[in-house]
Structure prediction request, 512 residues.
Amino acid sequence: MATLALLWESSSSMIFCFRSVKNLPPVENEGVGGIIIGVKSFGFSVKVLYFCILPLLDFNLNGKPMTYLLLSMGALSLVGMLWLHLESRRENEKTAKMRSVWGAVLAPVFFGLLAWLPLPPMIPILVGLTTLMVVLLLVVPTGRPGGFENCFPAERFDERTVMFSRAALKPDTDYFDRYYRDHPQHRECDDKFRRLPGLGSPDAGKYEPLSFAAAAASFEAVEGLSGLIEGEPAATTLEVSPEVATAFIKGWLKKLGAVSSGITVLKDEHMYTVKGRGENWGQSIERTHRFAIAFSVEMDHRQMGTAPQGPTMMESAEQYMQAGAIATQVAVFIRNLGWGSEAHIDANYKVICPLVARDAGLGEIGRMGLLMTAELGPRVRLGVITTDLPVNTDKAGFDPAVLHFCSICKKCAEICPPGAIPKGGREGPEGNKRWRLDSESCYTYWCATGTDCGQCVRVCPYSHPNTLMHNLVRRGIKNSAIFRHFALKMDDLLYGRKPKPMVPASWLPNRH
Ligand code: SF4
Ligand code: SF4
Prediction:
């Protein structure tokens, strides 16, 4: 009877706890309300469990099994910390490397002392049970967090208003005068960044000749692809089933270096309204294809870890080139089959890549306004091919777990030197709530440093490498609200709340 009562009490208290956590109010509206409910229900659950279980343990266990339990926990924490240490060495994460050594020493010593010291039996039992409860709560899924809606743009964007387009306007030209006549509100801000040295400039704060020249070379190379991004399809059309075409293209994208890929029906809101760069400046953009194929390529972890130094811009430009080359190759291939297609590459976009990639199932748009992919978070470049070739589409990437994690994390907002990333909740009308980056402050900072900064990407907990250990954490973040709080605390503890830039590989110049 006592055992039955114990099982009933503990399971009902656990269910109470999970239900409360599952229904966490959205943090963007209620501040720390969700955490308080989680902690209260957790406390209640623990209390109920202890009151039921302690008399049984005193009677039954007499200390011994608890000793084994504590020793097992010590051994597990030792293995976990050593694993973390080896990964951190491989990833050149200095802080995590050092702190994991401390963890590997302190955690087993703590559990070992509890097991062997002549403490009152109640204390090791309480510690052991609390640890077990915490582990249980971390691994059991709590479902989707409530209160986060999908975001659909209320209107289409004009590419001429994007910072890169505004930066490309040359004073004393017809385009320049027309733009600021129509958008006088942008003049003061744009004059401010024009007075600074500029992206890639030798006069900029982070200038370093080799990495800056390498970045410029990648941008020039991607420009060289512009003649191939669109064209007439072959006269003869090859009929291919959507299944075969989809499997072939996705398989080939992977072979060419894409980390993930997906397909969506191309919608009007994916497209810019007006061209803002190149010789077709000011031309209207219409949707001409039925489908969009999106893919991501990885930006190197260590090079991005040097942000905001030159090697970061070098890597960012290199992956613009990589994504552009892959997109162009696939677009030409599809045209050779007799179907219309166009590659959307750096400086030649007709689509807004993060929106397309989200609807193609590659991820969710996070606090910094970038796509948070399942494998590498924001540490990717995106490529898109639009086409009429019949293909199968994927499920869109709406992910409230990412939105919940971003609402509690804020690491990117705290590291951002000009404060361009909002620290509050998502804003905007119903159905179009999102975090709105102050792209003007961000770009102005780039013009002072000369690089495209990337510190927000560097510190993001989702940016860790695509390895088993980090993927287990990503899985926990997706599944459990409690795990999201735990993972954030652990990330701060192991890597730092505001981690310092990494030292680049030995062949790269180091300005630290
Ligand atoms: S750093 Fe944190 S808040 Fe910013 S995008 Fe990454 S997970 Fe979201
Ligand atoms: S790139 Fe730099 S300046 Fe821009 S949002 Fe990220 S941290 Fe801020």
Observations:
- Residues 366-368, 405-406, 409-412, 459-462 surround iron/sulfur cluster (ligand 1) (CB under 6 Å).
- The CA atoms of residues 20 and 273 lie 45 Å apart.
- Residues 33-60 form the longest helix (28 residues).
